[in-house]
Specification:
This protein is of the alpha+beta class. It is built from 10 helices and 10 strands. The longest helix has 37 residues.
Length: 350
């Protein structure tokens, strides 16, 4: 058998490098492309509707998605477009001969993206529906009220997608997993992070706290750099703040990350007839996505340990491989976060 394959360090290094490489690629390619587009249709008179259509802007370019109404729909006013730093907002008034219920709306170009569209419709009879349109089915048929279960499922899915595509939040959690030793401490640390970002998510979304989005995103990147440096210090034999008081650091930075979650939720808004349910469902979705990520990381570690032990029983080699992986992980996480910090800082100072 090949010696390089027998050595457990190579198993660790190969698998962890592939894992970190996947995260780095996703971070560079679409760290924030999970922001959904948003369509709001509000009936103001029989057969007459106000339409708000918002599409995200990435690197100065509008996401190439276009609305296509059915032939029964016509414009009363031509679309008026307003440019915002992170999106384009288009407003118009449309009319329908009878009712918009049962009419189909296509989102041309959505299939070529990884972005969802949140569609909210309010009718004069008081009914309200909220639907998430995905690239795999880039159209929606307008209906009346879909009930509380539909609202809960839509916002829970948005929460799951936001955390899984929010690579910055995942890197922070990954850094905590690497740094914190012992299951009891780890569970307490992750719980503190969860409680903290749940508090600020609710407070910011409901309007009790107002913090500009760009400085928040830059500071989130800084928090990841901080924890990555703590890992390096730990490898050098110096105990940092995170290693001594992991719950305090996780809770403090969790408050900050909650503001980032709230920014995503504010972009799509909350249904007025089910605000508590939508907020709770989004937060539950974030937690489910976070637990899924932690499970994947733990599975990668468990499989790697098992594979390494199959090839060698050397505890020294296993310890050496773990130490190497922690160091490489710290520098990889820190480098990605430092890039974000510079990019996000420049975005609000220029």
């Amino acid at each position: 058998m090949n010696k390089a394959i027998r050595h457990p360090a190579w198993c660790y290094r190969l698998l962890i490098s592939l894992f970190l490489g996947t995260i780095a690629f996703a971070a560079a390619a679409n760290a924030h492309e999970s922001r959904p587009a948003y369509l709001e249709i509000d009936e103001t008179a029989p057969g007459r509707y106000d339409v708000i259509w918002r599409t995200p802007v990435y690197a100065g370019m509008r996401l190439p998605i276009a609305l296509k109404f059915s032939e029964a729909v016509s414009n009363v006013t031509e679309p008026a477009v307003r440019e915002l730093p992170d999106s384009l907002v288009e407003r118009r008034i449309i009319k329908v001969t009878d009712s918009i219920a049962g009419k189909r709306i296509d989102f041309v170009g959505l299939q070529a993206t990884i972005t969802d569209v949140l569609v909210r419709v309010r009718l004069l009879d008081g009914s309200e529906s909220t639907t998430v349109v995905r690239p795999s089915k880039a159209w929606v048929e307008i209906t009346g009220s879909r009930g509380l279960l539909a609202v809960a499922s839509s916002y829970a899915l948005l929460g799951v997608e936001h955390i899984l595509f929010g690579v910055d939040h995942l890197l922070f959690v990954l850094a905590l997993l690497i740094l914190v030793k012992g299951w009891r401490k780890l569970v307490g640390t992750i719980t503190a992070f969860t409680v903290a970002h749940s508090i600020t998510l609710a407070a910011a979304t409901l309007g009790f706290v107002h913090v500009p989005g760009k400085p928040v995103e830059a500071t989130i990147a800084l928090s990841i750099v901080f924890v990555a440096c703590e890992i390096v210090h730990s490898r050098q034999g110096r105990s940092g703040l995170t290693e001594m008081w992991p719950w305090v650091i996780a809770f403090s930075f969790g408050l900050l990350h909650g503001l980032g979650f709230a920014g995503a939720l504010r972009e799509v808004g909350l249904p007025q007839n089910a605000i508590p349910l939508a907020l709770l469902s989004f937060n539950v979705g974030v937690e489910l996505g976070q637990l899924l990520f932690i499970s994947i990381v733990m599975a990668v570690v468990a499989v790697t340990v098992y594979a390494a032990k199959r090839f060698s029983q050397s505890k020294v080699a296993l310890h050496s491989a773990f130490a190497w992986c922690k160091s490489v992980s710290a520098y990889a996480i820190g480098a990605i976060a430092a890039f974000w910090l510079i990019e996000r800082t420049l975005s609000f100072v220029t």
